[in-house]
Amino acid sequence: MKNLFLLFFSFILCTKVSAQNNISVKQKEKLAFPELLVFSNEFENYFSSKNKIEKIVSDKTFLEGPVWVASLKGLLFTDMNENKIYFWNKKKGLSLWLESSGYTNGLLLDANGSLLLMQGNHNVTHQTKRQIGKIVNPKSNKTITDFVTNYEGKKFNSPNDASINSKGTIYFTDPPLGLKDGDSDKEKELSFNGVFKYENGKAKLLIDTLNRPNGIGISPNDKLLYVTNRQNLYCYELDTNGDIVKAANFFNIPQVWEHMIPSTKIGWKAWDGMAVSKEGVVIAAGCGGVWFFSPKGILLAHIQTPEFTSNTAIDDKEEYLYWTAGKLPSEKGGSCLYRYKLR
User: Fold this and answer.
1) In angstroms, rounded to a whole number, what is the distance separating the alpha carbons of residues 164 and 94?
2) Do 283 and 315 meet the contact criterion of CB atoms below 8 Å apart?
3) 127: DSSP letter
4) Is residue 137 within a helix (H) or strand (E), and if so which, with residue range?
5) 224 and 236 in contact (C-beta within 8 Å)?
6) Nearest to 307 by CA among 291, 287, 277, 292
7) Is residue 153 part of a domain?
8) 77, 85, 154, 308: which has the fewest Cβ within 10 Å?
9) Mean pLDDT, the chain, as a whole number?
10) Residue 114 in 3-state DSSP?
11) What residue range is the signal peptide (predicted)?
12) Residue 6 lies in a domain
């Protein structure tokens, strides 16, 4: 009787899905974690669905901000609760790269190869800088200097994630997630939670209407800006100056909820960080795992995970996808780093 019910449920699910955008779904009675589910054959135009998923680091507190650093030939990523930055590559494995990172969340390489650190993301105080720090030439240097320190003389809330366009303009989010009491925290100096761009030595406010701006990414042609905000994944059209023109209807978010299998819905139903491939595929973390969207916003695939997935990164050759994931609330030993061979 149980097998008959499962067969009937799978038939109904596959029928419903195939009626929507001709998406075919691979379903199993028992799903391993993590596992790739492909919804569209278009996925194979960009990546391979036949490669394995590997857990390469485990037993950390709350991993975030992965970024591939070609000069180091490996991946840097943060454990923001532990105030550390780790390094990993296949040859040397895991090592502690920097302690006392300023409670960094996201990491980014600027146009000159300097490492940018989104600092102040764990119960900050008036002594916490709450800024973007910089490490010039991370191959031979680990000294953090001040970079983007304030907006109109006021401290940021807790810079969270950042992206960069082809001209070197930096975009970043500033939610209150590092403030112990959030919007009501006495240390909060800004009256809003913003999305900014930074160029020519100055931060410019682009959005002040999102309550929890988080992950951020930019299309390869610099025309689209992607921002996550709790259960929403927004898209904005940019002009030639890199400023927002209007919001764009890009992602079919209800379709994401329909494709979340029950076992993944126990996770935090919210979006976090993302990566954008050179071909414009948006790879977004959160909501039960990692989600792949085509350059036109079509849902391609999903790597479902049992943990909350916090952020993603792609190496410089686009051979591997890396992502961080962990339990919520965060606890020591509950966070991991994974990778998936894309090509």
Assistant:
1) 27
2) no
3) T
4) none
5) yes
6) 287
7) yes
8) 154
9) 88
10) coil
11) 1-19
12) no
- Residue 294 sits in a domain whose CATH number is 2.120.10.30
Structural domain count, the chain: 1
127, two tokens:
């002594």
Residue 288 burial (CB count, 10 A): 26
The structure tokens listed for 239 are 């002009």
Name residues whose C-beta falls within 8 Å of residue 250's C-beta, 6 or more positions apart in sequence: 224, 226, 235, 297
Q: Report yes or no on 25 lying in a domain.
A: yes
With a cut of 50, say whether residue 22 has pLDDT above it.
Answer: no
What are the DSSP calls for 302-323, one per residue?
Answer: EEE-SSEEEEEEE-TTS-EEEE
**Cβ contacts of residue 178 below 8 Å, gap of 6+?**
103, 105, 120, 121, 122, 123, 124, 128, 130, 157, 158, 160
Give pTM, 2 decimals: 0.89
Q: Decide if 62 contacts 50 (C-beta within 8 A).
A: no
The pLDDT score that the predictor gives to residue 270 is 86
Residue 128 has pLDDT above 80, yes or no: yes
Alpha carbon distance 256, 266 (integer Å)? 15
From 55-69, 135-149, 159-173, 241-255, the region with the lowest mean pLDDT: 241-255
Taking residues 206-214, report their average pLDDT: 97
Rounded CA-CA distance 104/116 in Å is: 10
Q: What does the alpha-carbon distance between residue 101 and residue 84 come to, in Å, rounded to a whole number?
A: 6
State how far the Cα of 28 lies from the Cα of 320, in Å rounded to an integer.
25
Encoding tokens for residue 154? Answer: 């006021």
**Could you tell me the residue range of the domain that residue 74 belongs to?**
21-341
Predicted local confidence at residue 26, as pLDDT: 42
Residues near 294 by beta carbon (within 8 Å), at least 6 away in sequence: 40, 42, 46, 280, 281, 300
277 occurs within a structural domain: yes
> Token pair of 134, please?
């910089």
